Amino acid sequence: MGSTVKSFLLKSKASDILGSIKNSSYVRYLSSITPPHTARQIKKMANQVNYKEVHDLLIEVALTAGDMIVSAQPRIATVGTKQNSADLVTETDKAVEQYVLTIIKEKYPDFDFLGEETYTTGKKLTDKPTFICDPIDGTVNFVHTFPNVCISLALAVYKRPVVGIVYNPYTTHLYSAIKDQGSFLTMPVRSRSTSPIEPCKFRLPRNLNPPPLGGLDRSLVAVEWGSHRTGRNWNVKYETFAKLAGGKEHGGKMVHSLRSMGSAALNFCAVAAGQIDVYWEGGCWAWDVAAGWLILTEAGGIVVDANPGNWSPAVDGRRYMAVRAAPTGQREIVEEFWSIIPEGGYDYSA
Q: Which residues form a coiled coil (predicted)?
């Protein structure tokens, strides 16, 4: 792997990297269909995974990918749309994912890969060890040079994340987690005004003795507008937003405020850090949430369905509510939130 990584580090433009990868024998190999595995083979693969080794590799990949992101200059000519003018993809998204895919498949050729830019309709998350990648979560922010952008990388086994890395290359905030080993934030810190800025690693949540959760009227809530602005799910979204923000005299919950920061992965991490109390989302995909999901739950938070009643959602279920760690109040705030969602809730079955 070393020579491959070094060859990418020598390149500064996303277009150069993408061109190099397209000519790689790895990509020709990756374009073939991965043969199916039996349940016994999958169990053997799962039991042999070294989570720490995967964690360290994903950090190395994320840091290099971060260099690609910050060195890129997204322009209108290099920006495309997937479904509408708010659903953007850039040359850099594609280049970063191809870089990640190449490095990971060199080390773990038998593992599955689920990525935003290489996703094909109908592909499902399976029990098999699967790397999950969002090369740039916050592409709209990236295009507008708004620095709330990250790469999100996870390994899932039996459809649950066991390693998660989220890295914002603009702030150099690195969130990391390994199943049953806690989650952490590594960030630059200056201890005194005259001291140099140095990276420091903090266990999450930042307040290791988080306060109880009160009601929604004492909460800071994260939401996202998404790229689909018509239809049933849009109606559910904006009606719920209005109830969250509205005054109590009109049946609203009068939350402290709503935050829409443009990155599902970083929203999950903000909940994990204890900076956001609740994040409610519909329409995201596994690559948006897998790494953040583990980072949150390892920090004592919980993930439930965005729709009422389901306390154990699937990672690829496309409906999520993330709640920060607290000694009390998690269940109560979930149930209060569920009570304001329009009948039927989100429907992403299509």
A: none
